């Protein structure tokens, strides 16, 4: 087993090592965090910015926050959201004040979802889904962007600290709507610090890095304000079942979103790209090429919690003792169990949205 | 007397005729408006956009609005603000719903004035000053930008309708802070139409045209929303007492702001550039060159209400019957009277800010 940042390997490792260099991230060091979660243990979490600051808060029991946003468009979430929640939950379980903002202003601006509709979708789907995925509703504060005047007011202030060129450098484009959303995100990310400065960590996939980078730039320009630059923790994308780096709705047969029926998910798993050999003999002799196997990746990232169990699957599959059809069947079973469990928890969570802890604004 | 758009002439006329062409304005036609005010009668109001729409509302007693904003920075206002108020008052007296917004978000973002400070300044100075200049507080609705969530929410929506290139074309630059302010102004300008679409008129100096132009562009792109493109009414700048096109605080000795002491104002008037001749004899023989006379311009724009009186001054001064020293003395007297009157009305207005009609938000 290669000792890369990804202990189980994947052809996509190289891309993430490039990202670490391109973005100027630190390679994630799981030994800094007590009881690392599945994603941390297995190199799915691959990088960070200023994570030592967060590790110190955990170690010394100091206040810090973990924050993420929900864009209330559509009525499904993807496996990347699942990873965000799992990392949020890790920090929540390790002393972080946890804040979830509903980006209803952005959903309205960018996708034409009315604020009323955004609110309804968040309450009826996105928030219950996040709770179903593990977020503790009793330890989480929620707010709607459109309610949070402080965030909006600060967005105006922060907008003065970014030049158009910086903006273009970070985002690639700089349309006015994009700019409005981005400066609001800066304010969202710093919101838990308005009252009292403290470290905070934002779990993201690589595509969300611009927000963290821009926020850190703005903090750097407002030194006398004393904001703590937000830390970022970066997880890999769940690869598309056809082998592309990221699952995407543009290829629906290679993409599993939540909610979905076990039948549909299993159908997609059946068609997934594996590292199985061309013939049964070759497979039995050489074993599967795990690095190219999207089904193993799915088990590793999402479906097998126990490390020993995953290790056994790895051994059997890479040694030729297990066939591609078998690992697909296993993944289908595990996925079915996960989906049923998600469905149950989701229905339960939906019934408790009246009791959520929304930040109160005057 | 030359029959230009400015019946009393001024060397600066040509600049405004160029502006009309450059901006694509209509030359202002005072005959469309009943009982035109001093600025309208004298060509100080020189142009408009879609003013026929407003004239029709007045004629047919249909609902429309007049709107302006106050940026609560500093504790003085300039004579350009005075002209804005006079035009607002004209429309207020002719059936317009009148709205004044306090741009506290912009003052915070662009000038670092905290929202609390901006609110205080607006209530203690800017609003009473506007009332002292003629705005009827009982017929005016006020709001603070920072209170008006609807405006902010719509700003996000409108930001999606402007491209960076349009923005640059209209404003020359496109810094994120400028963009935030500008899209908020679009929402401010359209705010009275959120509930019910209707024409509206914004009195401005030429430098405020970009806001009107951009708002009209956005309205044009949202045809199915049915907003009525806002009309603009354009007044000339009060020229700097040294002869430049615009009074500016960068030349304090040529700039009269409110409040000021009569002594200080008269001292500045004494030093003003006039159209007087080099010698007493020449002056008596040829009369003053009114077109170059900043003191006459001050009387015309601000200090002499009665047209016959102004006409008499014009005749005497241009015929050589009146000397530059005399017109300065006259201007000093009139200015003193105006300033005393302003001071009195201001103090009275300050005592009534508790009774102002602020828009209520949930």
Short structural description:
The structure is a homodimer of 362-residue chains. Chain A is built from 15 helices and ten strands.
Defining traits:
globular; alpha/beta; two-stranded antiparallel ribbon; eight-stranded mixed sheet; homodimer; 362 residues
Ordered list of secondary-structure elements with their pairings:
The structure is a homodimer of 362-residue chains.
Chain A: H1 13-23, E1 26-27, H2 38-41, E2 45-49, H3 51-60, E3 65-70, E4 77-78, H4 79-93, E5 97-102, H5 104-111, H6 115-132, E6 140-144, H7 149-159, H8 164-171, H9 176-190, E7 200-204, H10 209-221, E8 231-235, E9 257-258, H11 262-270, H12 280-286, H13 294-303, H14 307-319, H15 324-350, E10 357-358
Parallel strand pairs in A: 3-5, 3-7, 5-6, 6-10, 7-8
Antiparallel strand pairs in A: 1-2, 2-8, 4-9
Helix pairs in contact in A: 6-15, 7-9, 9-10, 11-15, 13-15
What can you see in these coordinates?
Two copies of one chain form a homodimer. Chain A is an alpha/beta fold and 362 residues long. Helix content of chain A is 49%, strand content 11%. In chain A, strands 1-2-8-7-3-5-6-10 form an eight-stranded mixed beta sheet, with helices on both faces. Chain A has a two-stranded antiparallel sheet with strand order 4-9. In chain A, helix 7 crosses helix 9 and helix 9 crosses helix 10. The N terminus of chain A is likely disordered. At the A-B interface, helix 5, helix 7 and helix 9 of A face helix 5, helix 7 and helix 9 of B.
